[in-house]
Every structure is written in structure tokens, then in C-alpha cells.
Design goal:
This protein has about 280 residues and is mainly β. Helix content is about 10%, strand content about 45%. It is built from three helices and 16 strands. The strands form two sheets. Strands 1, 2, 5, 6, 7, 8, 9, 10, 11, 12, 13, 14, 15 and 16 form a 14-stranded antiparallel beta sheet that branches. It has a two-stranded antiparallel ribbon with strand order 3-4. A hairpin with a 5-residue loop joins β7 and β8. α1 packs antiparallel against α2. The two termini are about 35 Å apart.
């Protein structure tokens, strides 16, 4: 383990894969042998951003699919261009987890549409107002206690959620709940985490922010996170205004408006598997 706290320790590159060791700071509240969805999402986003980068292009949609438990053994990530193009391209990254027999099992995938940028500042328009109050006007807390449903799980100190600083705006009885969140650790030890990587590290928590289900009575696990951006987020803080829709047949959806301190940046959607405990 590195002396520098981080979500992942780099283990090197073998020509096709980047290899990483997840640290205790990635652990999920649902089990000590599982990673929370946030750090793997950040690692997949990092892979997309660093594959044949072009400063004249931006990612406008990134979709993450969780294919199985993301374990605490060695993780490896690969990236490829699925659809090349000068104006529009599609990239894909894949995260695999090392098994006891030494083989790797695919646990998560990401796809990202990357578009060439142009000047549209004269017609810029957002569909939601800025999120207020801003984080510096609110009291900060480490962990997510008070944001997600309060019950059996430890939302204050365990693993990944214990590395997050949050500033709660409100926990609504009806309508979306709203909070500012930022990671306190780098994604990969020895690297500077980009603003977009910080943003994607956090987005899996929209499911917890938007839920009103009691953890002692229900589980609500999201199988995916899809994010559409109309501009790139800037800074450490991500604002989340989220609400979960629960259907009658064991599944639902979490929808969130996403912000930085300058205003709205996009929206996310997650499919949620809902089961009684």
C-alpha cells in the first residue's frame, strides 16, 4: 500500500491493461468485500479521458453498467475506440476483477460519446437554475449520514462514504433531496484527479441521496448510471438534486440534476433493483 491515501494504487501497465489495487477507501456500506460503485466509475471515466485525448473534444454522455460485484482484489482496465470519427466518436472501457484462480472477471463497463467542441456561448441555455445555497454557505460533514436514509447501514464512516465531505441542503419529504458532495482523496495515488474524474467518482451516490426507503427494510441497488452533460463540470464540489421513483414490480429509477458551483451541468439516471430485506 502507498503512504498516500487514495482509492486505488497503480500497479503498472502491460500494454493493454492498466492494473490497480483498490484500497479500503473504496469499500461499500453493503459489504467489506465489495467496492462502492463510485470508485470503479471514476476509474472507468479516467480510462476514457486518457485514451487518445484531444483537447478539442469533450465527453457529452458517459454510461456505466455494473455487470457484477466489483471485488477488492486486483482490478484491471482497458479502453478502445468503438466508433472513430473526427466530429463524433464512441469509446469503451472495461474493468475486470482478479479471481482466486488468477483469471479476470469483467465487472463493469463504460461507454462515452466524445464530440468535437464549437463556440455556442451566444445561445447558451440551462434548463434548471443554479443549486443554492452554495457549499461555502453550509456546514460540512464527513460521510453521508443525513443524506441517505438513516437506518442499519453506516453512512458516516465506512469505506468510500467515509471519505466524502457533504453539505446537505435539504432532505425533502416530497420532491428531490439536495446536497453538495466532494471526495477527500485522489482517485489514483500519485496522480492529480481531474475535475471530470472527481465528478464521476461521486455520481453513484445519487441513488442514496434520492431514496426514501428505510435501509433496514429495503435494499436498492443500482445496476447502471447514465450521465448526459451540456458542459464540463469545474471544481471539487458536485451538487446533486435527486429523487427515486419506485414502481410496483421490484424496480425503480433514480433521476438527478447535477451541478457545480457555477450552475447546472447535466442530468443522470439510474435503474434500481428494489427488494425487501
Amino acid at each position: 500500500m502507498s503512504a498516500q491515501p487514495a482509492y486505488f494504487i497503480p500497479l503498472g501497465h502491460d500494454g493493454e491493461f492498466d492494473h490497480f489495487e483498490p484500497t479500503e477507501h473504496t469499500v461499500s456500506v453493503w459489504g467489506a468485500d465489495l467496492q462502492h460503485g463510485g470508485p470503479p466509475t471514476g476509474l472507468l471515466t479516467r480510462a476514457l479521458l486518457r485514451h487518445e485525448p484531444d483537447a478539442s473534444h469533450s465527453f457529452t454522455r458517459i454510461a456505466i453498467d455494473i455487470l457484477g460485484p466489483v471485488g477488492m482484489t486486483e482490478n484491471r482496465v482497458s479502453t478502445t475506440v468503438l466508433r472513430p470519427g473526427r466530429q463524433i466518436s464512441l469509446l469503451g472501457s472495461e474493468l475486470s476483477v482478479k479471481q482466486p484462480d488468477g483469471s479476470f472477471r469483467i465487472a463493469a463497463r463504460a461507454t462515452g460519446w466524445r464530440l468535437a467542441t464549437a463556440d455556442t456561448a451566444t445561445v447558451e441555455h440551462a434548463v434548471t437554475p443554479a443549486l443554492t445555497p452554495l457549499p461555502d454557505e453550509l456546514e460540512g460533514t464527513i460521510g453521508l449520514a443525513g443524506v441517505g436514509p438513516l437506518d442499519a447501514a453506516d453512512w458516516g464512516s465506512v469505506g468510500f462514504v467515509g471519505t466524502l465531505e457533504h453539505r446537505l441542503i435539504d432532505r425533502a419529504a416530497h420532491g428531490p433531496s439536495r446536497a453538495w458532495v466532494r471526495p477527500t482523496l485522489p482517485l489514483v495515488a500519485g496522480e492529480e484527479t481531474t475535475d471530470l474524474e472527481k465528478f464521476f467518482i461521486l455520481l453513484d451516490v445519487a441513488n442514496g441521496v434520492g431514496s426514501r426507503l428505510a435501509i433496514g427494510d429495503w435494499t436498492f441497488m443500482n445496476t447502471d448510471t447514465t450521465v448526459h452533460l451540456h458542459r464540463e463540470p469545474v471544481g471539487d464540489w458536485t451538487g446533486i438534486s435527486a429523487e427515486m421513483a419506485v414502481g410496483p414490480n421490484g424496480y425503480g429509477s433514480t433521476f438527478a440534476d447535477l451541478y457545480d458551483t457555477a450552475g447546472p451541468v447535466g442530468r443522470s439516471a439510474q435503474t434500481v433493483l428494489i427488494r425487501p430485506v
